[in-house]
Design a protein that fits this description.
The complex is a heterodimer.
Chain A: E1 3-7, H1 14-22, E2 29-33, H2 38-45, E3 53-57, H3 62-66, E4 71-74, H4 90-107, E5 112-115, H5 120-133, E6 142-144, H6 147-160, E7 173-175, E8 182-184, H7 198-209, H8 211-219, H9 227-244, E9 252-258, H10 263-273, E10 277-285, E11 288-292, H11 300-325
Parallel strand pairs in A: 1-2, 1-4, 2-3, 4-5, 5-6
Antiparallel strand pairs in A: 6-9, 7-8, 9-10, 10-11
Helix pairs in contact in A: 1-9, 4-5, 5-11, 6-7
Chain B: E1 2-3, H1 10-18, E2 25-29, H2 34-41, E3 49-53, H3 58-62, E4 67-70, H4 86-103, E5 108-111, H5 116-129, E6 138-140, H6 143-156, E7 169-171, E8 178-180, H7 192-203, H8 205-213, H9 221-238, E9 246-252, H10 257-267, E10 271-279, E11 282-286, H11 294-323
Helix pairs in contact in B: 1-9, 4-5, 5-11, 6-7
């Protein structure tokens, strides 16, 4: 049995995300959990002609939803409105994530936990600290999904230079998942950055960093990115399942992780910057994180982006961790 | 073009279409929220351009379209039949059809909006008024009934693969007009009771979801899945020129005069869901009715008069109005 749980399954991201996951041949059981509407969404999805079984679980049914889960994907929480930063969501979403993490510790302590709920820079440390309290934290199994930044990078790069194929061109994005903490390493794309002016590079980097704001603004109060986030979330979840269930090797995605997932590779980085969490290219294995790839060689421009990201990330991480440890 | 792109079906449908390699431009049209949905989808790393068009921009949205998919309209609440939606959705479909006649008369039109049995005739009659109707290019999407059939059959007999087992579903797209031809599934060995149960569940699968959603809507995600599957098949045939693709779909039978002559003279039905083979022109061939069991024949006998009423209602909505 490969049970995947979506927490927040009836929400703006949760519904299309669950639709995409319903199409996977690797999932045998898809459990949808939300405070309202999950049974209706489950009935809807259960009619799709793939083999997986779909169940819907309401507010009082969290334990049953999470029991024996292989993987838990968490889009639950409130989205941004125009003018808000991801950090503004913290007050509400921190409590939701902490409660879900308690549920994971109780019902599926060995599960892979994939966090979408913002602010990711802080919610991932919240999950980790709750799991640590219960003695079940495995840094190889907890991920912040920053894939949408990679997806945006690939797409925006192809808009600037149409000879770049958006589908096959992967961009390494390091740091975190909000504003200045998003650091796309465009210098690694063959024959690309050399063709840009400084203005174009600035504009492109800024667009990737504030892609989320672009959608919040366009939706004018109606929400934030849901469909593209579902796409990115499904891409990440399915890649991880390919590695952990189908045992496919060599798969890589940029992801925000606790650096103890690969102590050897990250020891010097951790010592230098004092950061416990950082998004880097991660190679997957059966165990989750098999290997964290070292920070690639960056351009001078990218170094300034990194220098701006470090202190912001530190603050975000501390905020998340202390939400649990100070409680 | 997706008309109704910001709705419960429209949004996930548009997400799935954004992943198609045959589409170069995905235009999202809706009375509200389309620009926001377009901005969201435009960030996905496939090649197609995405544009969002609001209420006043329907012409712009439809201009030069190759294919128009229409999920627009209101969904059912518990206790409602698809026919109860007619009053509201008929007007919406009429207006969109006028837009198609004006801006993209040669487009393939794929109708999701219920009640499909009646809304497809509405599209046809509006296009006829403008001399732009090609019966090979207008389809009612009944694919969700096929999807449900494949899935429900698997739930009863898990030696049947739901993904690869296609079930022919004929008739229409509501209640008793849905006739799944389960007898044609290879190696099936259902008892009479099981066939009754399965048939009923397939016919009222939509009600099952409306009830489970308890006022929050009707099938959206599974409809998006089915709609995208059908749209992709049409694009594979009409854009990529792939031959031999077949889907059950609700069409005007003049799309294949020869193939349906006997059926039409016997039943006097202008529209009917049947297995259709696609070609570059849309409908290439409407397959003859499969061999039916005695049970399925009784289902068909119940479906035909209901369909006649639904078709007349849709047709008259346009032809009566034009007589005023």
């Amino acid at each position: 049995m490969v049970k995947v749980v979506v927490c927040g399954a009836a929400g703006g991201i949760g519904q299309p995300l669950s639709l995409l996951l319903k199409q996977s041949d690797l999932i045998t059981d898809l459990a949808l959990y939300d405070v309202v509407n999950a049974p209706g969404v489950a009935a809807d999805l259960s009619h799709i002609n793939t083999k997986s079984k779909v169940t819907g679980h309401g507010k009082d049914d969290m334990d049953a939803a999470l029991k024996d889960a292989h993987t838990v994907v968490i889009p639950a929480g409130v989205p941004r409105k125009p003018g808000m930063t991801r950090d503004d969501l913290f007050k509400i979403n921190a409590g939701i994530i902490a409660t879900l993490a308690e549920g994971v510790a109780k019902n599926c302590p060995g599960a892979f936990v994939l966090v979408i709920s913002n602010p990711v820079n802080s919610t991932v440390p919240i999950v980790a600290e709750v799991l640590k309290k219960h003695g079940v934290f495995n840094p190889k199994k907890v991920f912040g999904i920053s894939t949408l930044d990679v997806v945006r990078s690939s797409r925006f790069v192809s808009e600037v230079n149409p000879s770049v194929d958006p589908k096959t061109t992967r961009v390494t994005v390091v740091g975190g998942h909000s504003g200045v903490t998003i650091v796309p390493i465009l210098s690694k794309i063959p024959d690309f950055v050399e063709g840009l002016s400084k203005e174009q590079l600035d504009a492109l980097t800024h667009r990737i960093q504030y892609g989320g704001d672009e959608v919040v603004k366009a939706k004018d109060g109606a929400g934030s990115a849901t469909l593209s986030m579902a796409y990115a979330g499904a891409r990440f979840a399915l890649t991880l399942l390919e590695a952990t269930v189908a045992e496919k090797t060599g798969l890589i995605e940029s992801s925000y992780v606790n650096l103890d997932a690969d102590v050897e590779s990250t020891a010097s980085f951790k010592a230098k910057h004092g950061l416990d969490y950082f998004a880097l290219d991660v190679e997957f294995g059966k165990e989750g994180v098999k290997h964290i790839l070292p920070l690639p060689q960056v351009s001078a421009y990218e170094q300034t982006l990194l220098d701006a990201a470090y202190p912001e990330l530190k603050a975000n991480i501390t905020k998340g961790a202390s939400f649990v440890t100070s409680a | 073009v997706v008309c109704g792109a910001a709705g419960g079906i429209g949004q996930p449908l548009s997400l799935l279409l954004k992943q198609s390699e045959h589409i170069t431009h995905l235009a999202l049209y809706d009375v509200v929220n389309a620009p926001g949905v377009a901005a969201d989808l435009s960030h996905i790393n496939t090649r197609s351009t995405v544009t969002g068009h609001g209420k006043e921009a329907m012409d712009e949205a439809l201009q030069g379209a190759h294919t128009v998919v229409i999920p627009a309209g209101v969904p059912r609440k518990p206790g409602m039949t698809r026919d109860d939606l007619f009053k509201i959705n008929a007007g919406i479909i009429r207006d969109l059809s006028e837009g198609i006649a004006r801006n993209c008369p040669g487009a393939f039109v794929l109708v999701i909006s219920n009640p499909v049995n009646s809304t497809v005739p509405i599209v046809a009659e509006v296009l006829k008024q403008h001399g732009a109707f090609d019966p090979r290019r207008v389809f009612g999407i009944s694919t969700l009934d096929v999807v449900r059939s494949s899935r429900f059959v698997y739930e009863l007999d898990n030696s049947i693969d739901p993904k690869s087992t296609r079930v022919t579903v004929i008739g229409g797209h509501s209640g008793v007009t849905i006739v799944p031809v389960l007898s044609q599934i290879p190696k099936q060995k259902f008892t009479k009771d099981q066939l009754d149960l399965l048939t009923h569940r397939i016919q009222y699968g939509g009600d099952e979801v409306v009830k489970a959603k308890d006022g929050a809507g009707s099938a959206t995600l599974s409809m998006a899945y089915a709609g995208a599957r059908f749209t992709s098949a049409v694009l594979e045939a009409t854009v990529a020129g792939k031959a031999g693709l077949v889907e059950s779909t609700y069409v005007n039978l003049h799309a294949d005069e020869e193939g349906t002559a006997a059926f039409r003279s016997k039943t006097h039905l202008e529209y009917f869901a049947q297995d259709v083979e696609f070609g570059r022109e849309g409908v290439s061939k409407i397959r003859p009715l499969p061999e039916l069991s005695a049970y399925e024949q009784t289902l068909l006998d119940a479906a035909i008069p209901e369909l006649k009423v639904n078709i007349a209602k849709g047709t008259a909505f346009i032809t009566d109005a034009s007589k005023i």
